[in-house]
Design goal:
By secondary structure, this protein is of the alpha+beta class. It is built from 4 helices and 7 strands. The chain has one domain: Aminopeptidase (3-Layer(aba) Sandwich). It has a 7-stranded mixed beta sheet with strand order 1-2-3-4-5-7-6, sandwiched between helices.
């Protein structure tokens, strides 16, 4: 098991398909695939968005392994975290936290101090992750996601001020 910190870098157009497939498999499963490679490429090109990738170092830079990504869009006074995902075999190693911190720091540099996101209501681990990062569940969105079969799925809108405290340490029992 690797213990090195992930390598974070801005996404390149050539990574769009890999990012899109991870979104399809881990974020959008069951609700339809919206974030296809063309949509990811549009975010990479968008001057008001940042797409960052995480890689697990292998000792051979050309063989570093893709471990996750995050996409954040910036407005004048707030940012929206569109997507954040980690490859399942690399979870629980702090990669999501590093991606989120990097995106939040970028927002602060851009003069933005609030971030919003939506997360599926059934995704309890993700909701706990964001709460641990200082986000609050501000609104329950009953029919937020529409599935390809015409059903709906609920979400929570979460947000946080970046001027407040950072990640809280885990509770010791």
């Amino acid at each position: 098991m690797e213990t090195s910190a992930p390598i974070l870098k801005l996404a390149e157009l050539s990574e769009a398909k890999t990012i899109a497939c991870l979104s399809r498999d881990e974020i959008e499963a069951g609700i339809g695939w919206r974030w296809r490679a063309d949509a990811i490429k549009a975010m990479i090109r968008d001057p008001d968005a940042i797409v960052v990738c995480a890689y697990v170092p292998t000792g051979d830079k050309s063989a570093d392994r893709f471990a996750g990504f995050g996409i954040m869009q910036y407005e004048l006074d707030h940012a929206h975290l569109n997507l954040l995902a980690v490859v399942p075999s690399y979870r629980r190693r702090g990669i999501a936290r590093e991606l989120l911190l990097w995106l939040e720091k970028s927002a602060l540099v851009a003069g933005v101090d609030t971030v919003a996101l939506e997360v599926r209501a059934v995704n309890v681990p993700a909701r706990a992750f964001y709460r641990n990062a200082g986000y609050q569940e501000n609104e329950y969105l009953r029919h937020y996601y529409r599935t390809p079969h015409g059903k709906t799925e609920a979400a929570y809108r979460m947000g946080r001020s970046l001027r407040e405290t950072r990640f809280r340490p885990p509770k010791v029992r």
